[in-house]
Amino acid sequence: MNDHQEKPMESRTSATAVDIRNLSFNYGSTQALKNIGLNLKRNEVTAFIGPSGCGKSTLLRCINRMNDEIAGTRITQGEILIDDINIYDRSVDVVKLRRQVGMVFQKSNPFPSSIYDNVAYGLRMRGERDSAVLDQSVQESLESAALWDEVKDRLQESALGLSGGQQQRLCIARTIAVKPTIVLMDEPCSALDPIATAKVEDLIWKLKHDYTFIIVTHNMHQAARVSDKTAFFYMGELVEFSDTSRMFSNPSVKKTEEYITGRFG
Amino acid sequence: MSNQHIFQEMDLSMNALREKVQLMASLTAQNMKNAMRALVSRDIDLARIVIGDDSEVDELEVKIDQLGMDILIRFHPMASDLRAVITAMKTAHNLERISDHAVNIAKRAKKICKSQSSIEVNMVEPLFAMAEQILNDALRAYKDGDSDLGEGLHAADEQLDKAYKKVSASLSSGLENPGTNAENILHLIFVARSIERMGDLAVNIGEDSVFLSKARDIRHEQRKAQS
């Protein structure tokens, strides 16, 4: 049992948030991930870096089974354990898994509804109807996402009227409103200006005390700024996984050095 | 590893940085050598050249810092590139200080040349040879990425320190001898001190060359090991 199987969050004591073991993954006949092994710690930020097509986003989407939605995809080997449960086990409820493992996408995707309804959406889907509970959760989530002060007087206005950076922070608020333990981020700042990017990065740094973040980024300086650990992928393989400071000052593998110094890519 | 960056402008800037450090190293080594020659051969003109040439070294230090800052801002270097920029700027700083000590020696040489020759000048020559060797090795370690050579300079510097203490003691005791040109002896004590400092600064360059090639910070390791 784990959270996606209705286990109380308090019982999670392991230091490991996600344990990826010997994972291989195919898009049809094309192998996208080759025997990946990664142990991601709780309350750390891990960055996935690598050139386009290296498999980093594929691996990210494996962690909350988003790839299930793509026809012809399959895990050909290995497993992903969250709270000691293989999330690809038949007994796992994918909806509950995705509540535990939230996701923020490259392009902010607020629903065409009010700011309030966007944040309350996940709770309502879970059956929450108590307005006091919803009010409190919406406020807490927006505060955590450092957006409350900017929107508290216009919660009923359309979320589509927010700036790009505000929309992305709204999506983060919506994600954390359902109290996930792990937050996946796929290029969350690629469409944002430097100020909005800094706000999102600051948010990640502050929220990591409560959540485990896994972020895919093409921006190596962003990886260097926000992550504790960095994993470098190349052609579906995990080339190197280490402390971020070490990765960007003295990588162990020649291929990593070549990539992060801009000598291939 | 491919030596070429995809963004070739970065290669041009990194190469320019390396070339400027090499040029500064050559000028500094030359200033150091000329300062000693001016002292030993009582050549006031050469001493003046050393003092004049130091401004070129100073300008190069400023240019290297500017170029290093420019590379940091424009290219956000990582890993070995980041270490190369940091090391270039630190090496430039150490070279500038070595050249300042060469100027100190040249100024003392000018003063010594104005009085009768002192046999004690011979006492600082071996010190200089040791310091010069340390600097040459440090510069080779930096240029070739030879971390073993860079790390090995501590032993040579210890020998220099011991030799400096002996020479300094001998010169000081010579002050008590009747008929000694005390002023010249005092100048030579300061010359010996400058040579000893040059050795220390050259060791810094050697340590930075280890950081450059191996990403290991060996500064103060020896002192920690001794305590």
Helical segment tally of chain B? 8
- Please give the CATH architecture of chain B: Up-down Bundle
**Overall CATH architecture of chain A:** 3-Layer(aba) Sandwich
Which pair of chains has the greatest number of interface residues, and how are they split between the two chains? A-B, 16 and 18 residues
The CATH topology label of chain A is Rossmann fold
How far apart, in Å, are the first and last alpha carbons of chain A? 42 Å
| Class derived from helix and strand content of chain A | alpha/beta
Strand content of chain B: under 5%
What does this structure look like?
The complex is a heterodimer of chains A (about 260) and B (about 230). Chain A has about 260 residues and is of the alpha/beta class. Chain A has one domain: Rossmann fold (3-Layer(aba) Sandwich). Helices cover about 35% and strands about 25% of the residues of chain A. Chain A contains 10 helices and 10 strands. Chain A has helices at about 55-65, 95-100, 115-125, 130-145, 150, 165-175, 195-205, 220-225, 245-250, 255-260, and strands at about 15-25, 30-40, 45-50, 75-80, 85, 100-105, 180-185, 210-215, 230-235, 235-245. Chain A has a 6-stranded mixed beta sheet, with helices on both faces. A 4-stranded antiparallel beta sheet of chain A has the order 2-1-4-5, with helices on one face. In chain A, strand 1 (about 15-25) and strand 2 form a beta hairpin. In chain A, helix 6 (about 165-175) runs parallel beside helix 7. The longest helix of chain A is centred in the middle third of the chain and has 14 residues, at about 130-145. Chain A is globular, with a radius of gyration of 18 Å. Chain A starts with 15 loop residues before the first strand and ends in a 5-residue tail after the last helix. With about 230 residues, chain B is an all-alpha fold. Chain B has a single domain (about 10-225), classed as Methane Monooxygenase Hydroxylase, Chain G, domain 1. Chain B has 8 helices and no strands. In chain B, helix 1 (about 10-40) runs parallel beside helix 3. The longest helix of chain B is centred in the middle third of the chain and has 35 residues, at about 80-115. Chain B starts with 7 loop residues before the first helix and ends with a helix. The relative contact order of chain B is 0.14. The interface of A and B includes residues 250 and 264 of A.
